[in-house]
Amino acid sequence: MARTKHNAVVRQYDDTFLDCRDLRHTWKCVGYYRVDGRVRRLLECVRGCGTQRHDHWKQDGERLQPAYSYANGYQVEGGMDTWEVRREVMRRATIFTSEQAMLDALTKAGAPRVKR
Questions:
Q1: N or C: which end of the chain has fewer CB within 10 A?
Q2: Using CA of residue 105, residue 90, residue 19, residue 65, what is the dihedral sign?
Q3: Distance between CA atoms of 49 and 38, rounded to whole angstroms?
Q4: Separation CA 3–CA 26 (nearest Å)
Q5: Is there a contact between 28 and 44 (Cβ–Cβ < 8 Å)?
Q6: 3-class DSSP state for residue 43?
Q7: How confident is the model over 36-81, as pLDDT tens digits?
Q8: Taking the domains of the chain in order of start, what are their residue ranges?
């Protein structure tokens, strides 16, 4: 994919997907089940990106390579590297002049103030 087209894809990328690429998935265990004598654990991302991770364990507890399934639109042709993710996060973010300015703005917006 041409770099210009790829940049356009990154700019239109879903906010939740971008959060997961930036911060990594936050997993919730759905449950455990057996397949072919092995134990599988199904995890889902709680951010709502639709990603599922399937952990595969042998009976002795050895963890095998996990498998992932993604929502439509999560995967990007040609991939998306960490640099691209950071640039896009900063492009979308409101960047304040200081930590105090950020906390003041959040407090005025009705969000709870972060305790120190």
A1: C
A2: negative
A3: 27
A4: 30
A5: yes
A6: strand
A7: 999 999 999 999 999 999 999 999 999 999 999 999 999 998 889 9
A8: 3-79
Tokens of 78: 């040609």
Confirm if 85 and 21 have CB atoms less than 8 A apart. Answer: yes
Rg (C-alpha) for the chain, rounded Å, is: 19
Question: Looking at the domain that runs over 3-79, which CATH code has it been given?
Answer: 3.10.450
What is the distance between the alpha carbons of residues 29 and 44, in angstroms, rounded to a whole number? Answer: 7
Q: What stretches of 14-90 adopt beta strand conformation (E)?
A: 27-35, 38-45, 52-57, 63-69
Q: Give the span between the Cα atoms of 86 and 32, in whole angstroms.
A: 35
* Collapsed DSSP state (helix, strand, coil) of residue 87: helix
Whose structure tokens read 């996060």? 89
Is the pTM of the predicted complex or chain greater than 0.90? Answer: no
Q: Which residues pair with 28 in a beta bridge?
A: 44
